[in-house]
Amino acid sequence: HGIPQALSGIAGDEQRSRRRWTVVGGTGAGGGLSVQEGRSIKSTLLAKRLSTGSQIEELMSGGGRLNYRLFSGSGPATGWISTSVGGRALLAASDAPLPTALRQPAALPVA
Questions:
Q1: In whole angstroms, what separates CA 77 from the centre of its chain?
Q2: Is the confidence at residue 22, as pLDDT, over 90?
Q3: Is 18 within a domain?
Q4: What is residue 26's predicted lDDT score, i.e. its pLDDT?
């Protein structure tokens, strides 16, 4: 019944968001996701790409872009990435199941 009081002050606050994500896109020829220095898709492109399977922490997001900090995997320590391309999600919530191509066999969750 409503948002718990502890969460009500955080809801919608981009600055406080600290969700973790797994990179599930970028399996094409380039391998991984392109990373930009700034929020704009036209900002400076970093030399390294964020590898598929990397775990990242969300620092800020909006407009289909996400500012991250690398938690595990390989790629730039921080930067901005697109969250989807052509309607395909490039990230999965770290507590969400990975796409079949990236998943290791595991027991089914108990309902």
A1: 13
A2: yes
A3: yes
A4: 86
Give the strands of the sheet with 91-93, arranged side by side. 78-82, 65-72, 55-62, 20-23, 91-93
Tell me the CATH number at 70.
Answer: 2.30.30
Range of the structural domain that residue 27 is part of: 12-90
pLDDT, tens digit, for every residue of 28-77? 777 899 999 999 999 999 999 999 999 999 999 999 999 999 999 999 99
Beta bridge partners of 79: 68
- Break the chain down into helix, strand, coil percent, rounded to 5: 10, 30, 60
The residues, any chain, with a CB within 8 Å of residue 47's CB and separated by 6 or more, are: none
